[in-house]
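tool_call: predict_structure(chain=1)
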Amino acid sequence: MSIANTYSNKAWHLVSRPSREQPAGPHNFRLVESSVAEPAEGQVLIRHLFLSLDPYMRGRMNDGKNYAAPQNLDETMVGGTVGEVVASRHPKFREGDRVVGMGGWQLYALSDGAGLRKLPADDSIPIEAYIGPAGMPGITAWVGTTQIIKPKAKETYVVSAATGAVGTVAGQLAKMAGARVVGIAGGPDKCRYAVDTLGLDACVDHRTADFEQQFAAATPDGIDGLFENVGGDPFKFSLRRINFHSRIALCGLVASGYDGTPTVVEDMRMVLTARCLIQGFIVTDFLPLWPQAIAELSGHLASGRIKWRTSIADGIEAAPEAFFAMLKGGNFGKQLVRLG
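tool_result:
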């Protein structure tokens, strides 16, 4: 059976970079169709089932200094994927194996096995969880919570984007540690979900006119731990309420970093006076801890201790629109594209 005659690929290529004159949007991408090549010796061919859309991808579209190299133009856009091996000439993978990797915005990918991880054969958690709460987003939440903030019983822990892919897990891990957890989310539906389903003690809608007053009322004893995903005014208001020896895990600045508007610390004296730890981190800096994190998170998911939800766009054609909607808060939970 000829692979080329059986499978046809579709892939989104980044073909231009955003600029001040023309901000980022679907126009920066082009859908490219091609035949699928036979795997060479030492390669596997993977059919992707789900594509993960994550905020870091926006930074990769820029051509500038970042923690990762810019996405190359006229090549398949980077992205986490889960899928199934459909052909293999690699000694560690067989046809039918379920795998997670960085296959990118496309239906099929050839891999030499580097960075490819075989998934358990059981169905204790859905396969898409491995690019969500048991994958990079969940590991990010685990690292920021357990390795940087280290919440303690009766402390106040705040998480922004509390119903997003990372924030959902971060808030629940802090609750397991006994902390009082306050979420920040966009809209009453997300705030209700944060409290009623995720079990947070309170959630404040950052879109309300009196957000700062509501946030102060929800954190009457100040903030001991902050998991920051967003930046902007909510981050500024959080810094005004930090307690002595508080810890901040700076994970993302979605609200400000991508459109050229910086998040500014208005008065560094508050950080000095509070003797506050602020640590920016990238989850790949903690690769040796990933097996521990995945094992713990998978256990929490299988037992139902961690709740999660997804926003799913269907078909590879939907990826760019879903991506930019997610950056504006249009997702509810983990944003995926279903490809299978």
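agent: Residues 230 and 255 are 5 Å apart (CA to CA). Proceeding to next step.
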